[in-house]
Amino acid sequence: MADIDAIKAELKKLNAKATQAKMDLHDLSEDLPTNWERIPEVARIAHEAHEALMAARAKLAAAQAAA
């Protein structure tokens, strides 16, 4: 159960990070063409944040299924 609680805590942090990355990407898109040079960087950060979030969700689902 401690593992599941730790994964849930990690998931909460990753969700906040992914949400912020999504908002940063959204804000950048609204300001285009200003700062267009940052598109790859901001998109990479958003992609990595959501990739980590999806991995944590899968990890939680596996841990809950095993419990």
From TrEMBL:
This is CCE_0567 family metalloprotein. It comes from the Bacteria. Belongs to the UPF0437 family. InterPro entries: Helix_hairpin_bin_sf (IPR029012), Put_N_fixation (IPR007774). Pfam families: Rop-like. Keywords: Coiled coil, Nitrogen fixation. Residues 4-31 form a coiled coil. The keyword Coiled coil applies.
